[in-house]
Amino acid sequence: MKLESYVSGQWQAGKGEGRSLFNPVTGAVIATADAGGIDVAAALAHARTRGGAALAAMNFAERGALLKAIADVLTANREAYEVIARENSGNTRVDAAIDIDGGIGTLRYYAKLGQGLGVAKAIVEAGQDQLARDPVFFARHFWRTRPGVAVQINAFNFPSWGLWEKVAVATLAGVPSFIKPATASALLSWRMVKDAIASGKVPEGVLSLVCGNGEGLLDPLGPMDSVAFTGSAATGEVLRAHPNAIRAGFRLTIEADSVNATILGPDAKPGTAVFDLAVREATKALSIKAGQLCTNIRRILVPRDIVGGFADALGAQVAKLAVGDPADEAVRVGPVMNAAQQEDARGKIVALRGEARIVAEAKAPADGTFVAPTLLLCEAPASARAVHDIEVFGPCSTILPYENTREAVALGIRGGGSLALSLFSSDADFAGDVLDGLGPWHGRVLVVDDDVGKNHTGHSIVMPQCVHGGPGRAGGGEELGGLRGLRFHMQRSAVQAGSGLLGREAERAAIAAL
Predict the structure, then answer these.
(1) Residue-wise pLDDT tens digits, 87-101
(2) Which DSSP helix (H) or strand (E) runs through 430?
(3) Domain annotation for the chain: domains and CATH numbers
(4) What is the pTM of this model?
(5) Catalytic positions
């Protein structure tokens, strides 16, 4: 099967042979993808004009209804998506649910936000500022949709969630989506978009899809267009330096590599609830989606006096993890995406072993693209480099002992900026110090104490209510965050005028805080 692209209102096959998509367990080729010969400039123009016009004619509530309609179509076909997730990405049932249901759930969340914004097409911030001595001249800030196209370049590990979380925000903001999924796992993205288009509920141009090479995708973009990229820091650097990014000045947000950490507080002794919760969460990091989550726990900072107890407790869980074919319901850890990912992960584990030793390792099948879940311990993290610099994109975490709060914060900073940090502690003073020191270095911070307990959503799970992204090495971008996500696709303008005009314009807009 050859995956076609959906551009300019029709499905088109590329002219080349394309790249192969594999089953990571058997190695069998299950599809090919190619975008050779597609007129990218024409396709972008079609999305910008036809799709843009269709969304511009809708108010927020109508766009929300469109998102709900797409979610309903995807829900009706969910069983087929689970099979694709297993055969193309090696997902277990749990892994597939995180990706598929995460995408559908985000669509539904933004659909409800659209209903809340009502019949307006613009947003006005609350309040106004008097600009003259006499109360006749004021300023208010309005958000209006940018008349462009949103190019969305997604990573291989979340072909559903990564796609639909970007589409949901752009659609509600009124901007058409031009989707470029990672080729290795594009089968699920292709099938989902195909089902959405076939439903007849999506106006032409609102969704476009390119399966295969994205060459030339950035060249025709203009100042009202945007690019949202999720992937490697190396590719992110190429995008930042693209000549047209500088010339046209289109918006660019990047979510890249991240050496995320979790920290146990000094009160998280063996036998306490927060200790057990930390072990539970770290075990998930070494099992769910074979460790291939951009938000996953890579470093575990533990008070030096309990390192032994924590390593024993977590190591016992790691050794019991069942690794194998995700078709087997007993399997907890499936394969990584492909042979290249397997080689990369194994090579980076070897590099980390120059500074750390293996504490525990699960058994993995010899055939297929499996990577054994591996727990490491670095005894001297302050003088180490690799454990802070290298992200093993697979089931591997490293324990780092720390002496005091100051050192814990210093070690956290060594990640260079991350997407997510989690803290397991009921010591409010310790938590406050860590938040002060590491908050600026992280896009999201999860604090689990005795009150929160098992009710938290998880270190790695991205919720649509919260911003997703991170500073520094993590790319410096930001997505989601409820209505905050709309900012990327809208322009805030300060309107200076008399109170009469401002009042009339405000009546046509929805009041919200972006």
Answers:
(1) 999 999 999 999 999
(2) helix 428-438
(3) 2-256+476-511 (3.40.605.10), 260-474 (3.40.309.10)
(4) 0.94
(5) 255, 294
